[in-house]
Write a structure and sequence with these properties.
five-stranded antiparallel β-sheet, about 475 residues, OB fold (Dihydrolipoamide Acetyltransferase, E2P), alpha+beta, 4 domains, elongated, 11 helices, disordered N terminus
Amino acid sequence: MEPEPYSESQAEPQSEPDMESLLAKHLEEQAQCVAKRGDVRLGRIIEISEEGALVDIGLKREGFVPIRDLRQMEEAEEQEIVAGDEVPVMVVNTRDQDGYVELSLYRARLEKDWIKAEQLLESGEIYETEITGYNRGGLTVQFGRIRGFIPLSHVVGLPRGLRDPERRDRLAAMVGQKIGLRAIEVNRNERRLIFSQRQAYRSWQRMRKRQLLEELQVGQRRHGIVSSITNFGAFVDLGGMDGLVHVSELAWRHVDDPREIVQVGDEVEVVVLEVDRSRERIGLSIKQTLEDPWDTVEERYRANQLVEGRVTRVAEIGAFIELEPGIEGLLHTSELIGSPNVTAQEVLKPGQVLPLKVLRVEPGRRRIGLSARRVQQEEWERWATERDAREAEASVEPQEEEVAELEPQGEEAAELEEPEPQGEEETIVEPEESVEPAPEPVGETEEPVAEQDTAPGTPSATAEE
């Protein structure tokens, strides 16, 4: 006989309770299976209380982040977490004492940094960061919430064989510097993250150079360090590439030697004058960061004023005279003593100092007209007397200091058989012995003042023609 067919109507009432229990059991097992310890999931903050944060992680049970974990986030200066935020969390325990899935925000973000480090190692990309510390073995840097390490053998510019004190000083001086690194070892289990500066150095230099050329704009102000000096200017490291400050852009005054203004290692502020991306050249200026003396020249000079100037260059049209750093005027041949029978080359030489009268001041054209023949006799005499007094005072003061240091004191002086009268033998050079006599004012037929001895000097390109 064939078996009677199975009656669903008879079996259904008996199977309903079993299906519900099986479904509940399946969901429970699924939750237990999906929420494994160490998993990192994306959750949404439901509520934050004094005990911690309640988080929806898409399972049957909510997750819970203890308050101690949130405080770790605060100590790490993380962004404040608020209800509604979607955040990565790590499963620490599938069920805590209250039945929640125990979660950690801090460990999730730490784990995320390890994943990024592994990706960095695999790609070989350059990581740019700042040196945060050092120890006997090398330098330390921060990679998110992970501390990375650079062994001494992978530090650029650190010679081998240095003694401990000198090595420590060099490492300490590097703290705060921005460098490029390449990951060479990432071990999440042993919590080891090792970087190399040496392997990344050339690539990082090229990368910084490209970045700098792209972001630099004419007119920007930048800080840099003087890296080298030549006769035609100074090179300034802008952090990845050097720019040139031409000698004419070092100061508002004329500069013969760039070393008068800057030294290697000086930190300077510069203005970007030119960016040639195709030729990879940068033009900079230091003087553009300083006040232009021509902006206030009318406050210091006026027509018919008696001034003192130094000859910087002699030309056919006359002599260029420096009145102060950055301010030069023109003494035209027509305003020389003895003109028109003399030329500037005959009576003047670079470095000579002489009194002059201001004829006119033209700030817009950056010009000052000067005259020697309009200086009156009494003005010449007064200027010469004041000059002699200044030179005599300058020659006496150092000798007084030297005598004071050598003068014996107390018992030491008494032991000398013939004490030297320091005050009497102090050499005070008389003006007629150490200083040339002041030139007497002359008329148009007499010898010009230009015959005085002077020190060499040079001209500016902005004087009046």
